[in-house]
């Protein structure tokens, strides 16, 4: 087992992609993974960047994802829950014309390679033209399947960006 701390696994860079898949990035070496990077969307407004787990090159796209989130933008906080989604949120992608305001997304995945429910936590903040926003979400995938990869995609349009995957070594 590696010594304690984050261990780099891979980085993926993409341009005007509809989906970006990374296979064989989760293994029995780590229980916890950090996915972090920036993603720019192609639409004129901010949009969700979604994530699906993958097993042997196939997305888990059934309605088995659950989410609970809180968002605060301007003076209007909001919250919501979904129990039958087909993906979880990786973060937010601001339109490509607003590259100076692009949020840096971070998502923790717990136990994706184990045959137990995979859980996730994402928290991000960004300043879009002086409007500071906070987004926090927890999620889970309801099946007890071993996953070895993931796919990210935008709620609309294409995405451009880069993200890296790290494993967390703990003894």
Proportion in β-strands: over 45%
CATH hierarchy, class: Mainly Beta
Taking all Cα atoms into account, the compactness measure Rg is 16 Å
Total number of distinct structural domains: 1
Roughly what percent helix? under 10%
Main pleated sheet: 13 strands, mixed
Q: Low-confidence parts lasting 5 or more residues at pLDDT below 50?
A: none
Assembly status: single chain
Please name the CATH topology: Jelly Rolls
Helix/strand/pairing category: mainly beta
Query: Helix tally?
Result: 0
Mean pLDDT: 85
Report, as a whole number of angstroms, the end-to-end distance: 8 Å
Count the beta strands: 13
Q: Overview of this structure, please?
A:
There is one protein chain. With 171 residues, the chain is mainly β. The protein has a single domain, classed as Jelly Rolls. The protein contains no helices and 13 strands. The protein has strands at residues 5-17, 19-22, 32-41, 47-55, 58-59, 65-73, 76-85, 88-95, 104-110, 118-128, 131-141, 149-154, 159-169. Strands 1, 2, 3, 4, 5, 6, 7, 8, 9, 10, 11, 12 and 13 form a 13-stranded mixed beta sheet that branches. It is globular. The mean pLDDT is 85.
